[in-house]
Amino acid sequence: MYSSVNTIWVLVAAALVFFMQAGFAMVETGFTRAKNAGNIIMKNLMDFSLGTPIYWLLGFGIMFGGSSALIGGFDPMAKGDYSSVLPEGVPLLAFLIFQTVFCATAATIVSGAMAERTKFSSYCIYSMVISAIIYPVSGHWIWGGGWLYDLGFHDFAGSTAVHMVGGVAALIGAKILGPRIGKYDKNGKPKAIPGHSLTLGALGVFILWFCWFGFNGGSTVSATGDDTIVSLGNIFVTTNMAAAVSTVTVMIITWIRYKKPDVSMTLNGSLAGLVAITAGTDLVSPFGAAMIGIIAGFAVVFGIEFIDKVLKIDDPVGAVGVHGLCGALGTILTGLFAVDGGLFYGGGASFLLTQIIGVAAVAAWVTVAISITFFAIKHTIGLRVSKEEEIDGLDIHEHGLTSAYADFMPTMGVSAAVNKALDSKPISESVPVTRVKVEKEDKTEHKLTKVEIITKQSKFEVLKAAMNAIGVTGMTVTNVLGCGIQKGSTEFYRGVPMEMNLLPKVQVEIVVSKVPVDLVVDEARKALYTGNIGDGKIFVYDVENVIKVRTGETGYDALQGEE
Question: Any idea which fold 4-399 has?
Answer without folding.
Answer: Ammonium transporter fold (1.10.3430)
